[in-house]
Predict the structure.
Amino acid sequence: MAIRQETVEQVASVSDKYKYGFISDIEADTAPIGLSEDIVRFISAKKEEPEWLLEWRLKAYRHWLTMVEPEWANVHYPKIDFQDIYYYSAPKQKEKPKSLDEVDPELLEVYKKLGIPLKEQEVLAGVEGAHNVAVDAVFDSVSVATTFRERLEKEGVIFCPISEAVRNHPELVQKYIGSVVPYTDNYYATLNSAVFTDGSFCYIPKGVRCPMELSTYFRINAAQTGQFERTLIIAEEGSYVSYLEGCTAPMRDENQLHAAVVELVIMKDAEIKYSTVQNWYPGDENGVGGIYNFVTKRAACRGENAKVSWTQVETGSAITWKYPSCILQGDNSVGEFYSIAIANNMQQADTGTKMIHLGKNTSSTIISKGISAGKAQNTYRGLVRMGRKAENARNHTVCDSLLIGDKCGAHTVPYIENQSRTATIEHEATTSKVSEEQLFYCQQRGLSEEESMALIVNGFCKEVLQKLPMEFAVEAQKLVGISLEGSVG
Amino acid sequence: MLEIKNLHATVGGKEILKGINLTIKAGEIHAIMGPNGAGKSTLSYVLAGRDGYEVTSGEVLYKGEDLLALSPDERASKGIFLAFQYPVEIPGVASATFLKTAYNAQRKYRGEPEVDAMEFLKLIREKTKELDIKDDMLKRAVNVGFSGGEKKRNEVLQMSLLEPDLMLLDETDSGLDIDALKIAADGVNRLRSPERAGLIITHYQRLLDYIVPDFVHVLADGKIVKSGDKSLAHELEEKGYAALSAA
Ligand SMILES: Nc1ncnc2c1ncn2[C@@H]1O[C@H](COP(=O)(O)OP(=O)(O)OP(=O)(O)O)[C@@H](O)[C@H]1O
Ligand SMILES: [Mg+2]
């Protein structure tokens, strides 16, 4: 309850329309514009990659050339010119920093502006006794600062930029990369496989409970640089990790493409909790600018009792195309998807999940809260598939839409494929409006119209907000309010 | 404290208030009675500033200030509290959160320091005890799944916490059991002071046995057709409104 109060205060104190709208001027070392085999080779060479990875990238690139951009999602945007994008840019640094003191102060300043929670700033600043959140900061495309590495190493946890993992743990990367999202998977994932620049790698050994929450802050920076992150997390038998991903981007006029891939591998009795707060620049009130966010996120529960939960708060981007999925292969494995998707002004969100039940007694839960305001379109698209061997598999889906105003739209598109005679699938869906009555009631108690809206919408999202780690929940509630600014009145 | 002069208001294009004149001085409690659909709730909404309740002519002064120029939240922060005839449900928002948010919003407006969670808890516990409300109600979402009576008690709780200067009670007694009615009335009486005033809408004179009004008015068809003291309520209870209009 204290948190929600804080939210309202914070929401009230933020006057700027988009406070993350600034551009940092760290010099970029940029590849020539456009995409070709040469560019793929350039990226691979820049990263000093082994031959097998270059080959993999090239296979992906060649496959991508044979594919067409998907058009089935309920999103509309001008055609992307893939030759008009820079595929590589990196902040210039002579040597890798040995400690945080050596990290570019301008970069630390950027974190400050981003409003990274104070505790994590302390972590970044290397303050003793700072809270245990490891931040592997991805700045543009090259990971610059990695903290708490030693503490994690003691537990045998590997948490580093994926390019580093390619150098130091090639056998792990080679074994798992593309094993959940193959390079042929879909248009954007294939593109990512060809040109990914960086991202995080995380390996939790057998029986280890990761001693801290791992978090990565993404940021798109250099103009027109598409961001192609690749994240790979492996949880060995009986291990546990909670991973936080949060992102902001500077304001600009041109649309920016973002096509990330996240792969999670979960073994027997292991669990991954993956939480995202996404507030990239959504474009202005007229739909100018904003990020195009085409993401492929997928988790494979490979062993018995494996568990994965995706929790996402999606408030940003002009276009969101994102379906974090769970492949429930191990018997008794569990998949969860908790989502808040807010679309305001001209934003378009087409998001949901896929729960693929293969093993016996597998269960999945989907709770989706979609909020539409302004002229935004918000679509929930979810697939629940029960395979032939998925005996007694269960799914429960709750899909709630909230409308603010009468020019926006909410759409629910559930796909159900059931080949198991003993499976249970439940689907509930509701659509409601923030009523004038509710707003007036809150205002009559002294809340401003915007505070009232933030309170009501946070109430609507409560079940999902509760699933977020504490610090993220605070940020998320704040975001809910900020992203709805201008939606009332 | 409150001066209503020749107030006309429309709802959905239909004129509901047709020239209300009413003056409430600090320290006074006025009761308003009247048949269904007379415009009692409409009057309370107009005073609280609800959207869609359009004032077409007349004026309202609150503490000497033009009330109609203020937004609903400003009016609330300046001390006007409306206990709703039909309290609204807000799913997912715990009552305690709602109350603390409102309490601090008003303090902030008045330039007073906000209270933290601990202080607030102490404060609200005091109020729930006074009103015989179980603390678990604070954890539940605002009015969601509350019984009719619980909703009304919750309104009185909110009022006790916010300590308004002008209390507007719209049929707060309807739906309350006999014990609850007495407790709620005690809550209102505790707030009574020479600096505060109240406008109490009710259909039953029973409430007025507990909250003794200084004046009773009858609102019919958008106008105050009769005013008197407490005895008017008894008279109405006996004879009904029909006799009144016939007279
Ligand atoms: N949105 C609306 N559009 C049209 N007429 C309305 C609207 N809202 C209220 N009214 C009408 O205004 C009149 C006054 O309503 P109001 O709720 O003020 O009555 P009341 O005196 O409080 O009655 P009750 O004793 O039943 O609570 C009624 O005839 C009602 O139908
Ligand atoms: Mg009424």
Notes: The longest strand of chain B covers residues 14-24. The interface with chain A takes residues 48-52, 71-73, 75-77, 81-82, 84, 87-94, 96-98, 100-106, 109, 114, 116-117, 141, 158, 162 of chain B (CB under 8 Å). Residues B 40-41, 85, 170 surround magnesium ion (ligand 2) (CB under 6 Å). Residues 129 and 135 of chain B are 9 Å apart (CA to CA).
